[in-house]
Specification:
With about 450 residues, the protein is of the alpha/beta class. The protein is built from 15 helices and 20 strands. The strands form 6 sheets. It has a 5-stranded parallel beta sheet with strand order 1-3-4-5-6. Helix 9 links the parallel strand 10 and strand 11. Bound molecules: iron/sulfur cluster.
Length: about 450
C-alpha cells in the first residue's frame, strides 16, 4: 500500500490493510516483493496528482515486466481526472473513498474491478486497533456539507455522514486496550459532527464521551470556524485529557476573498471565535491553514491576511499556494494569479509565521508540560515527540529511553522545535512504537 495525502487517507489505508490481512494477504515493505500494489491518492492540489501519475508510470513498467496487479483508491479515484489516469496506466482495481470495503470482492476475480459508490458499510465498520501505535486515528465523520469554492472534497467524498457514536466509542475501546496514549478524531469537519443525523450527539457531547474513555490525550482535526460552538470550546476547557490545542483553518484575512472562497464568515467573526477560546483557555495553542494567492487576491487582500495573522499570533500555520482544481467553482469562474505573485506572497507569509513561531516558542522556555515521546530523533542523542500543543519536542535520549509520556521543562526553542529536559516519567509503553506521525508506505502481497 502506498499512501498519499491527509490523515483521513492514512486511516483509510489502515482500514483496507486490515481487510487484506483478514483475507490472508501479507503486507510487505517493498514494491519488489509485492504482487498487488494499491495507491491511496489525494486530489486537493495539482502536485499530489502529478505525483500519482509518476508513481503509476513506474508501476506500469513493473506490471508489464512481472505481472503486478495495480489498484487506485482515495479522492483522485472518485474523479474523472483520476479515472483517466487509471485507464492510461492500466490500473486493475479502482475504489472510491466510499467503496473501500469492496477490496475483497475486487481481488476475487483477478480482473478489472471499479467501484465508485458511496456505500454505508464503511461508516459502521469498526476498524481493528492499529498495533504498536502511540497515537491512533479515529474517523468520526466523512464528507462535507460546506461548499468552499476552491475545494474538491465535496465531490470526492460526498455529503457529510456522521458515524454512529456507539461505533466510535467501541472503536475507541479497542484503541485504548491496544495501549495507544493518544487518539486523533478525524473528519473533513469534525465539529459539524452529528448535524446530519437527528438523535446523534453534537461534537461537543461526543468529545465529552471520548474524554471519559480514559485515553491520556484527545486531539481532533479539522474544524470549520462556522461550526465551532461555545459548547465545544467549553468542553475542551473542562475536559482534562482533551488537548488545549485547536487547529482552526482561516484561509484568508480578507472578507472579499473569504466571500469568493465561500467560507461563510468574516475576518472579524473569526477573530471573535479566537477571543472566546482564549478567554476560557488563555494557554490554548492555535494553528491554522492559509491559502495564499487565491484567484483574484490583490495586494491589499494579502495585507489583510498578514494583519489577521498578527492579530491572532498563531503558534504554527500550514500555508499553501492556491492550486486551481478542475471541477471546482473557483476553477470555473475565477482567473488564476501568476505563479510568481503567489510564490512571493507565500515567502512573506512564511517569514511572518517564523517570526510568530519563534516568539511563541521562546515564551515556553522555562515552562513544563507533558510530551508524548515516540522514539529516536534524526539526531541519535535525542528522542523525538510532540507536546499536547502539537510542537515537535526533542529530549535527551538518556532521559527518555522508552516511548511514553514524560513531563519536560523547555530549555531552548527554535521556530519549528522545542528542546527540553525530563522532569518526570509519567507513563511508558511496553511496545516499540511504529512510525506514528508519517503516512504509511507499504505494499500488499496476496498470499
Ligand atoms: S469545509 Fe470547505 S475546505 Fe473543508 S472539506 Fe468542506 S468544502 Fe472543503
Amino acid at each position: 500500500m502506498i499512501t498519499h495525502g491527509c490523515q483521513m487517507n492514512e486511516y483509510d489505508s489502515h482500514l483496507v490493510e486490515s481487510q487484506l490481512v483478514a483475507l490472508g494477504a501479507e503486507m510487505v515493505r517493498s514494491v519488489d516483493e509485492a504482487d498487488f500494489v494499491l495507491v491511496n491518492t489525494c486530489a486537493v492540489r495539482g502536485k499530489p496528482v502529478d505525483k500519482v501519475k509518476s508513481v503509476f508510470g513506474d508501476l506500469r513498467k513493473l506490471k508489464h515486466s512481472k505481472g503486478l496487479m495495480l489498484g487506485m483508491m482515495g479522492c483522485l479515484a472518485q474523479l474523472e481526472e483520476g479515472q483517466q489516469i487509471a485507464k492510461k496506466y492500466e490500473v486493475d482495481v479502482l475504489l472510491g473513498p466510499g467503496a473501500l470495503l469492496d477490496i475483497g470482492r475486487a481481488l476475487e476475480g483477478n480482473g478489472k474491478f471499479w467501484n465508485l459508490a458511496f456505500k454505508d458499510d464503511i461508516n459502521s465498520f469498526i476498524a481493528p486497533p492499529p498495533q504498536g501505535r502511540l497515537s491512533a486515528m479515529l474517523t468520526i465523520q466523512r464528507g462535507c456539507d460546506h461548499h468552499c469554492t476552491y475545494c474538491i472534497v465535496p465531490q470526492t467524498r460526498g455529503p457529510q455522514v456522521s458515524r454512529d457514536p456507539d461505533d466510535i466509542l467501541k472503536e475507541l475501546e479497542g484503541i485504548v486496550a491496544a495501549g495507544s496514549l493518544e487518539v486523533n478524531l478525524l473528519g473533513q469537519n469534525v465539529n459539524s459532527y452529528g448535524l446530519d443525523r437527528a438523535g446523534f450527539p453534537s461534537f461537543a457531547e461526543l468529545l465529552r464521551r471520548v474524554g471519559r474513555s480514559g485515553i491520556p490525550r484527545v486531539k481532533f482535526t479539522t474544524s470549520h470556524p462556522m461550526d465551532f460552538t461555545d459548547e465545544i470550546i467549553d468542553v475542551i476547557a473542562q475536559t482534562a485529557n482533551v488537548c488545549k490545542y485547536i487547529h482552526l483553518p482561516v484561509q484568508s484575512g480578507s472578507d472579499r476573498v473569504l466571500k469568493r472562497m465561500g467560507r461563510e464568515y468574516t475576518a472579524q467573526w473569526y477573530l471573535e471565535r479566537i477571543e472566546r477560546m482564549r478567554s476560557v483557555m488563555p494557554e490554548v495553542f492555535i494553528t491554522t491553514d492559509l491559502i495564499v494567492g487565491f484567484a483574484g487576491e490583490t495586494e491589499s487582500d494579502f495585507q489583510q491576511t498578514l494583519e489577521l495573522y498578527d492579530a491572532v499570533g498563531y503558534d504554527q500555520a500550514y500555508m499553501y499556494l492556491y492550486s486551481a482544481r478542475p471541477g471546482t467553482p473557483s476553477y470555473a469562474h475565477f482567473d488564476d494569479l501568476p505563479k510568481e505573485v503567489k510564490v512571493e506572497r507565500l515567502q512573506r507569509l512564511i517569514e511572518r509565521q517564523k517570526h510568530w513561531s519563534q516568539l511563541k516558542n521562546t515564551a515556553l522556555v522555562g515552562k513544563e508540560f507533558e510530551v508524548l515521546m515516540r522514539g529516536p530523533a534524526y539526531e541519535p542523542s535525542f528522542m523525538e515527540g510532540h507536546s499536547s500543543g502539537h510542537h515537535t519536542v526533542l529530549l535527551p535520549a538518556g532521559q527518555a529511553p522508552i516511548a511514553g509520556i514524560y513531563k519536560a521543562k523547555i530549555t531552548h526553542a527554535t521556530p519549528h522545535m522545542l528542546f527540553g529536559e525530563v522532569t518526570q516519567t509519567v507513563r511508558q509503553v511496553s511496545f516499540a512504537p511504529m512510525q506514528p506521525f508519517s503516512p504509511v508506505t507499504s505494499s500488499a502481497s496476496m498470499g
